[in-house]
Amino acid sequence: MKDQVAVIGVGCTKFGDRFERSYEELITDAAFDASADAGIDPSEIDAAYLGTYLPGAGGGKAAVSLGDALRLYERPITRVENYCATGTDAFRNGCLAIAAGVADVVLVLGAEKLKDRGGRGLPRLGHPLLARGNTAPGLFALAANRYMHTFGLGRETLAKV
After folding, report:
1. Which domain holds residue 157?
2. Are residues 60 and 130 located together in one domain of the fold?
């Protein structure tokens, strides 16, 4: 089915404080829900794309847990990390795999579970500046300011992007 891509099933777990379920359990639940909605067996999945910004929040081995639960042995499971575009990028990669003829059926999954880490939810990176502003908007603002400084641009120029 090269060059033709369709979403054939979806699955979603309940949002909220889910302390009773682990990160791995939540992604597995969503994956099984999606395959059931599509009317396929997980064995028909050729590849998976797991979009997650902080997989360490779930123990760091989410792809392994997903592969084991769905029995996706000897099939690629790619972790995608792209800040606020992580989910979109994972979906894009899944679509590209199908359109290129590399796979017929892919699972695209996005997940975050930050509150189990305690404190502020996001991990502290140990960096004296980033540890106090480790949010995507904060990091993008730092990058934009540096870019404007380096290339002598004003806010008006950046606003045109």
Report:
1. 124-161
2. no
Same domain, 40 and 60: yes
Q: Could you say which DSSP state residue 101 is in?
A: T
Return d(Cα 50, Cα 132) in angstroms, integer.
28
Contacts of residue 67, defined as CB under 8 A and 6 or more positions apart, other chains included, come to: 48, 73, 75, 77
Which pLDDT tens digit goes with each residue over 49-72? 999 876 555 456 777 878 888 888
94 class by beta-carbon count within 10 Å (0-12 exposed, 13-18 middle, 19+ buried): buried
Same domain, yes or no, for 75 and 147?
Answer: no
Q: What Cα–Cα distance (Å) separates residue 119 from each residue in 23, 53, 68, 71?
A: 18, 18, 31, 35
**Domain CATH for 45:** 3.40.47.10
Domain match, 18 and 97 both: yes
- Which residue has 């999945």 as its token pair? 45
Q: How far apart are CA 150 and CA 68, in angstroms?
A: 47
Edge-to-edge strand list for the sheet holding 106-110:
77-80, 47-51, 106-110
**What does the pLDDT look like over 93-137, one tens digit per residue?**
999 999 999 999 999 999 887 776 655 545 555 556 555 656 777
- Main-chain dihedrals φ then ψ at residue 121, nearest 5 degrees: 90, -60
